Amino acid sequence: MALKDLLTNPEMHFVLFGGKGGVGKTSSAACSALWVAEHTSKTILIVSTDPAHSLGDSLGLALEPGVVTPVPGVERLSALEISPQKAFKEAQEKMGSNPAGLDMEGMQIPLLGDLGDLAGMSPPGADEAMAFGTVLEYLENSEYDLVIFDTAPTGHTLRLLSLPEILSSWIGKLISLRLKLGKLMGAFKGIFKRGKGKDDVDPMDSIQHLKDSIEAAKDELQDPAKTSFVIVMIPEDMAIYETERLLSALISYEIPAHHIIVNQIFPENVDCNFCKSRRDFQLKHLVEIEDLYKGEFDVVKVPLFEKEIRKYDQLRRMARYVVEGEGQ
Ligand SMILES: Nc1ncnc2c1ncn2[C@@H]1O[C@H](COP(=O)(O)OP(=O)(O)O)[C@@H](O)[C@H]1O
Ligand SMILES: [Mg+2]
Questions:
Q1: Which ligand does the CA of 230 lie closest to?
Q2: Is any ligand 1 atom within 6 A of the Cβ of residue 22?
Q3: Residue of minimum CA distance from atom 16 in ligand 1
Q4: Separation of alpha carbons 13 and 223, rounded Å
């Protein structure tokens, strides 16, 4: 299925663009989002999860971190650069100082074993957890027909994608710990017969709810009808190695991926020895890439343009190759 078919498929809800730094993830994601807005009636949100945001620069507009902004002159397209710091502040304000409702004072000793266990499962970095929290919000938000993610370079994105697993087992641990604490409290209450009816609303319910939505997000991300990860690369050894690592991680997280964009291919008929020699070595790698992936993936080739890809006209030009399949 060509990228055009993927992007126009009414079922398709999340398309993520990922790969090595500088290969063209943002340009590919932005030109695809613009294309969908201008060629279909879908309502689209493009979200950058890269802490080094460049989505605003690519679209030629100023994006305030954490604020969904309509893309001027393009109907039904909005853009967002997520801000872990802002999300973190909001979460702190929302939850107060004791988010899990755990009252640990004087209770540690009988639970040391569990606490040790919990500590052994290192909690996710606040940065990635917050980024994931925002992603979760947009996975659940049905306001948009399509959400396109412009992701960070491979390592960061892989940590982000591993979070559903880590978080849900971490929260699971927290819940079982709280259940044990609850029993202990019950025992105390049984002895002293006090405090009845005080904690009818269990703050753990909201943690359970979080766990449920993380698991629902995991299901959505693994559903080939709804989600697709598009790998962006350039025809060079380093990018091939990184693509291999990315692919094996996607397979292990069971995230569907069927498209590879090979970007920045030197054009034919250039009157320059340096360019010819670059093109020759790129073509060798291109053969290798096609041998490796063509059976299983839709491999899309995109030329290196004489200008950087910025603003609508350049993005439209890139979309002809990325989305519509020109030059294939
Ligand atoms: N096919 C291309 N031709 C010319 N310039 C390109 C092409 N693809 C990307 N660029 C430029 O390369 C730089 C990196 O692209 P970008 O999309 O920001 O990569 P990433 O998001 O992977 O870091 C940008 O300046 C972009 O305009
Ligand atoms: Mg980028």
A1: 1
A2: yes
A3: 24
A4: 10
Q: Are 233 and 240 in contact (CB under 8 A)?
A: yes
Ligand that lies nearest to the alpha carbon of residue 23, given by its number in the listed order: 1
Out of 3.10.580.10, 3.60.15.10, 3.40.50.300, 3.40.50.720, the CATH code matching 3-86+126-167+211-322 is 3.40.50.300
Write b or e for each residue in 279-307: b if 16 or more Cβ atoms lie within 10 A of its Cβ, otherwise e: beebeebbeebbebbeeebbbbbbebeee
Q: Which atom from ligand 1 is nearest to the alpha carbon of 232?
A: 22
Q: Whole-model pTM?
A: 0.85
How close is the Cα of 240 to the center of ligand 1, in Å?
Answer: 17
Q: Structure tokens of 288?
A: 């290798």
pLDDT digits (tens, 9 = 90+) for 85-143: 776 676 666 655 544 444 434 333 333 344 444 444 445 566 667 677 777 777 777 79
Mutate to test the pocket of ligand 1, among 308, 312, 320 (most ligand atoms within 8 A of CB): 308
